[in-house]
Design goal:
Layout (H helix, E strand, L loop, with lengths): L1 H4 L4 E7 L6 H9 L6 E7 L6 H6 L6 E5 L6 H9 L6 E4 L5 E2 L3 H11 L3 E11 L17 H7 L12 E3 L1 H5 L11 H12 L1 E13 L5 H4 L2 H17 L8 H17 L1
Parallel strand pairs: 1-2, 1-4, 2-3, 6-8
Antiparallel strand pairs: 4-7, 5-8, 6-7
Helix pairs in contact: 10-11
Length: 263
């Protein structure tokens, strides 16, 4: 089983824009994976810093570099990469984050053993600009797989950089949605959750960086709240809200509605 599993290719996608400070950590974390059957697709979204010079040094048979001639945004850059993956599974890694060396192996193992699972996340630790662990982050607290699946349709508990899913969903489900600028990844994962099961690995296999220029800090708050409301309504209209999570749903909905009104 292990010998066969290691022949399964994983396509790892990094969409990068002006990440000269952190992109090296992202790439090196993939090169250090204990699981060796992977391809890394790096989409440079027309960076204006030294990102291009840094990533071009990594070009190889396993690492594909695509330098876009104009900036299209992380959303479309990711979709661009989706059309070029060759692996059975697709993993996401943001250009300012990095992965534990056992991340890919652990996720492939879950997907190979459980055909009913379509998407796998891992726990994550928050780090600062100098790679130091930031303590007292609520989302780092232990959460069971049951609770994760109950809460996920109402609140995004996952880190995008910890996601791995089956390639078939790229063709079967619509990734691009004009209603989104910020939480397009979460909306896509909700679509996967509707048609398959999600596995949450309760181990810290992802490192999520907190810094002033990350997407969460750049996007206007009213945009975030508006998209949260859209996702909540989508979950409700697609059968993801039930007796287990109805209270979480209403609490999250009214909280985001209030914040949207006052923002």
């Amino acid at each position: 089983m292990k010998r066969r599993m290691h022949k399964v290719k994983v396509s790892i996608i990094i969409a990068v824009y002006n990440s000269e400070k952190y992109i090296k950590y992202s790439i090196e974390s993939i090169k250090k994976q204990t699981y060796k059957s992977w391809e890394l697709i790096i989409i440079n979204d027309c960076s204006t810093d030294s990102t291009k010079e840094i990533i071009d040094k990594y070009k190889s048979k396993k690492i594909k570099i695509i330098n876009l001639k104009k900036n299209v945004g992380a959303y479309k850059a990711t979709e661009f990469a989706f059309n070029r993956v060759k692996g059975k599974y697709v993993a996401i890694l943001d250009s300012d984050d990095y992965s534990h060396s056992n991340r890919i192996l652990s996720q492939v193992n879950q997907l190979e053993k459980n055909p009913q699972i379509g998407l796998v996340f891992t726990k994550y630790k928050c780090i600062d600009e100098k790679n130091k662990i930031i303590k007292n982050i609520k989302k780092e607290k232990s959460i069971s797989g049951y609770n994760f699946n109950k809460i996920f349709p109402c609140i995004n508990l996952a880190c995008n950089s910890s996601a791995m899913f089956r390639k078939k969903f790229i063709k079967e489900l619509i990734f691009y949605n004009k209603n989104f600028f910020y939480s397009y990844d979460y909306n896509f994962y909700l679509k996967i959750f509707k048609v398959s099961k999600i596995k949450f690995i309760n181990k810290f296999y992802t490192f999520y960086r907190i810094h002033p220029y990350q997407r969460t800090n750049i996007v206007k708050k009213n945009v975030i709240y508006k998209e949260n409301l859209y996702n909540l309504r989508w979950s409700a209209s697609n059968g993801l809200i039930n007796r287990r999570n109805i209270l979480v749903f209403f609490t999250s909905y009214f909280k985001n509605f209030f914040q949207y009104i006052v923002s």
